[in-house]
Amino acid sequence: MGERASRTPSEKISPEVLSAAMAILDEEGPDGFTVRAIALRANVAPMAIYNHFDGLNGVREALWIKGFEIFNKELTFRTDDAADDLFNGALGYRKFALEHRGLYALMFMGRFRGFLPSPAAIDVSYQAFQTLVSNVERCQQAGWFKDESALDAAQVIWSACHGYVSLELLSVNFAADPNKTFQLLLATLRDGFN
Questions:
Q1: How would residue 11 be classed by pLDDT, with cut points 50, 70 and 90?
Q2: Would you put residue 115 in left (φ > 0), alpha (ψ -120 to 50) or beta?
Q3: Lowest mean pLDDT across 10-14, 84-88, 117-121
C-alpha cells in the first residue's frame, strides 16, 4: 500500500500562499495570478486556497491588507523634524512602490477586474493616508501648509507621489536621474504650498 500524501498544516497555508502570491505578482503581474499558479508555487492543493481564503479575491484582499501595512511603515517617521519626516515618508512611498511592484499594482493601479476590497480592508488603507495627514498636521504646527487643510494637502502630496511612481513603474519616466527628479517634485510641492 502506497504512502498517503501528507497535507500542509493549516497554520502554514496562509503564509505560504501569500508569499507565493506576492512572488507571482512581482514576477508575472496580474496575468499570472491564478489559483492554480499560486497553489503550485505554494505547494498546496488549489482547494486550500478556496478553503482558507474563499478563493482568489480572498488572496487579493489579504495581499491588499498586507501591502497597506507594509506601506504604512514606509510612510511612518517620527522625529523632532516634521518637515524631514514628511519628506522621508514621501521617499518611503516611492521606495515601497519600486520594491513591491506587484503589491503596488494591486493596491493602486486597479489591475484586477472584479476585486473590490472590503470595508475592513479600506480601513487599513485609510490608516496609511492618515499617517500622511498626521505628518502634514505636524508640519502645519511648524508653519508649513498653513493655508490648506491637512487632508487636502495630504491628498495633493499622495496624488503627486502616485503619479510619479506610476509613470516610473510603467517605464514612462524619462528623467536622467529619477531619484533627483522625485526629490525635485517633492521640493516643488513644498514650495508651492508655502
A1: low
A2: beta
A3: 10-14
Dihedral of the alpha carbons of 67, 37, 17, 63, in degrees to the nearest 10: 20
Q: Which of 73, 69, 35, 36 is nearest to 53 (CA)?
A: 35
Please provide the distance, in angstroms rounded to a whole number, between the alpha carbons at the two ends of the chain: 78
- Residue ranges making up the domain that contains 28: 8-53
Q: Mean pLDDT throughout 1-19?
A: 64
Q: What is the CATH number of the domain that holds 95?
A: 1.10.357.10
Amino acid (one-letter) located at 35 = V
- Side-chain-side CA neighbours of 188 within 13 Å: the count stands at 9
- DSSP string over 19-37: HHHHHHHHHHGGGG--HHH
Task: Give domain status of residue 20, yes or no.
Answer: yes
Q: In which residue are the cell numbers 492543493 written?
A: 45
Q: Could you read off the pLDDT of 40-66 as tens digits, one per residue?
A: 999 999 999 999 998 899 999 999 999
Q: How many CB atoms lie within 10 A of CB 116?
A: 10
Whether residue 176 is found in the same domain as residue 114 = yes
